[in-house]
Design goal:
NADH Oxidase, single chain, binds flavin mononucleotide, 4-stranded antiparallel β-sheet
Length: 190
């Protein structure tokens, strides 16, 4: 699949079929992740592939707890009807975990280490594009408390769970979400 087509056609999926994703496909998606750039080629990511029903239920409960918390904090009405059932129905969920120590020179920056997050985000995007090219759909999910997710997935306290990538075949996909044109967001300094 042409890269530009993949970038434009990929959609966030929130409604998955139960059909499992085979391990060879998951490995291909993870291989795509590892080709992302990273500071000093530190490759600051690790992955947990969750297909276990009980663990997915725990992730769902944590998501629900966070959704209610976010609704109360923000008052955003859409959070009241935002259903997280996809966390139970997605046949595979890949947790992407970053290592703040692998942030390159940026680990000494006043703002704190950010390079590892940028690298993990690049890896996550590669995963979405690879999944799409392989005929799967995916979702970048972040509505969880990091401490709670560390407990659920047995992640060391010094590591940072950054995202859950839900994977599977879609029941249906939402229509494309419109984008502003690049030129609206761009200033040339000539
Ligand atoms: C950093 C990040 C966090 C996100 N977190 C969530 C999330 O917690 N739940 C969710 O449903 N979608 C989440 N998304 C997906 C966005 O809502 C989605 O990409 C955006 O609305 C554009 O839609 P599209 O991906 O279909 O083009 C996240 C995306 C990014 C990049």
């Amino acid at each position: 699949m042409d890269l530009f087509t993949a970038m434009k056609e990929r959609r966030s999926c929130r409604n998955f079929l139960p059909e499992p994703v085979d391990e060879a496909t998951i490995e291909k998606i993870l291989e795509a992740a590892t080709w992302a750039p990273s500071p000093l080629n530190s490759q600051p990511w690790e992955f947990r592939v969750v297909t276990n029903k009980e663990i997915k239920e725990k992730i769902f409960s944590e998501g629900e707890r966070c959704r209610k918390w976010a609704l109360e904090k923000s008052g955003w009405k859409w959070l009241g009807s935002y259903t997280l059932d996809f966390l139970k129905s997605a046949p595979a969920i890949i947790a992407v975990i970053g290592d703040p120590k692998k942030s390159g020179v940026d680990m000494f920056a006043e703002e704190g280490p950010m390079g590892y997050q940028a690298a993990c985000a690049a890896a996550i995007q590669n995963m979405h594009l690879a999944a799409h090219a392989l005929g799967l759909s995916s979702l970048w999910f972040t509505l969880f408390d990091k401490k709670a997710l560390r407990e659920i997935l047995d992640i060391a306290p010094e590591k940072m769970p950054l995202a859950l990538v839900c994977l599977g075949k879609p029941v249906s996909l939402p229509p494309p979400v419109p984008r502003k044109e690049g030129k609206e967001k761009t200033t040339y300094i000539r």
